[in-house]
Amino acid sequence: MASMTFNNGYQQQHNLVAGSVSISNVVASRAEKEFGKLQRLIELNQRLEAALSMPRIPVSAAARDLVKHCNTVSDPLIPGLWGEPSGSPFTSNSSSSDTVCCIII
Questions:
Q1: DSSP code of 25?
Q2: Which class for 16: exposed (0-12), middle (13-18), buried (19 or more C-beta within 10 A)?
Q3: What is the pLDDT of residue 2?
Q4: In this structure, are residues 76 and 85 in contact, taking their beta carbons and an 8 Å threshold?
């Protein structure tokens, strides 16, 4: 019967040979785990490199562009700042009484 001793790794592996697990299976499973870890590290490194290569701008430049955009583009949802909207692009401009308000296709 295999005895488990925890003095060192070699003695533990040597004692496992007498049992149902062989050293080659233990080494193979460790190699597979290490290879899986290596693959995950390589994928993480690739994602980090892709994130690093993305173009970046300073926060001050982004804030300046945002303020410029907000000051130049009118927003119909803020009538106090931009005035009442002149018309909705979603309504019909015709004023005849025979127009249908909804068309089902």
A1: H
A2: middle
A3: 47
A4: yes
The answer for 83, left when phi > 0, alpha when psi is -120 to 50, beta otherwise, is left
Amino acid at 81: L
Task: Tell whether the model's pLDDT for residue 1 goes beyond 50.
Answer: no
pLDDT one-digit tens code per residue, 34-74: 999 999 999 999 999 999 999 999 999 999 999 999 888 88
Copy the structure tokens of residue 32: 């597979």
Q: Which amino acid makes up residue 72?
A: T
Q: Residue 30 and residue 52: Cα distance in Å, rounded?
A: 33
Query: How many separate helices (H) and strands (E) can be counted in the chain?
Result: 4, 0
Q: What is the 3-state secondary structure (H, E, C) of 27-65?
A: HHHHHHHHHHHHHHHHHHHHHHHHHHCCCCCCHHHHHHH
Cα distances (angstroms) measured from residue 80 to each of 75, 83, 84, 86: 10, 6, 8, 14
